Every structure is written in structure tokens, then in C-alpha cells.
Amino acid sequence: MSDGKGTTVLWRPTGPRELELVRASGWRKWPPRLPDQPIFYPVLNEEYAIKIARDWNVPASGAGYVTRFQFETDFLSRYPVRQVGGDTILELWVPAEELDEFNNHIVGQIEVIHEFGSTDRVG
User: Is residue 109 within 8 Å of 28, Cβ to Cβ?
Assistant: First the structure.
């Protein structure tokens, strides 16, 4: 996952509402969590992000998106990797109150790499 340049690739499955807030930020940060969302969960592999976007976000909101972003590798060490299922079901758990600081360590822009829903566009 590390690119050798001091950054690590992370993915985030998301629905249309969260994606609109990311777009409004200029593709630079994740929005604050809602009161019932105490943890922000970026994931460590694309396949897991696809599964969540397609199988959870689409039924819940009609569309699901997989985003990808680069993150400062050194800063990631404060968030232990959580295995929440099989060998490739890996997440980071970022407490909601730390999300502003987390956002400060995103390198470049957040990009949409897959879309699922009524159009089922991928890419």
C-alpha cells in the first residue's frame, strides 16, 4: 500500500451525500461524522471498498462510490489496522474527533474510481 514516497493509498466506500460534501471541499477532506458515527473508516484495499459500495451503499442510498486517496504514511501509525472479517477485510478506525487532523494529512485530492447504482459505471 505504501508507494515508497512517504504516502499510502487508502480507499473509502461512500454514498452520494458524503460524496457531495467531499466534492464541496474541493476533493480535499472528509466531512465531519454525524452524531451516530463515532468512527471514520477508510479501508486498506480496493476490493473491500468495492464490496461495501456495491453491496451496502447502493441498497441504502441508490448509489455507491469507491474513492481513493494518498495519505502520509508516518501519520497512519497512530491508527492500528483492524481486521474485521477475512484476511483482506482491513480498516483503519479514526475517531470522529480526530477527523480534522486526519484530513490535514491527505496528500493531493480524493478521487472517485468506481461508481455503482443505476448507471453501474466503473472506472
Answer: yes
**End-to-end alpha-carbon separation of the chain, Å?**
20
- Dihedral sign, Cα of residue 104, residue 25, residue 71, residue 50: positive
Cα angle value 46/52/58 (rounded, 5°): 125
| Full strand arrangement of the beta sheet holding 106-117 | 7-14, 63-72, 106-117
Residue scoring higher pLDDT (122 or 32): 32
Over residues 31-54, the mean pLDDT reads: 95
pLDDT at 123 > cutoff 70: no
Q: What is the average pLDDT value for the chain, to the nearest integer? A: 91
How would you class 115 by CB atoms within 10 Å of its CB: exposed for 0-12, middle for 13-18, buried for 19 or more? buried
**Higher pLDDT, residue 82 or 39:** 39
DSSP for 52-117 reads HIIIIIHHHHSEEEEEEEEEEHHHHTTS-EEE-SSTT-EEE-EEGGGHHHHHTTEEEEEEEEEEEE
Q: Which residues, including other chains, have CB under 8 Å from residue 105's CB and lie 6 or more apart?
A: 71, 72, 75
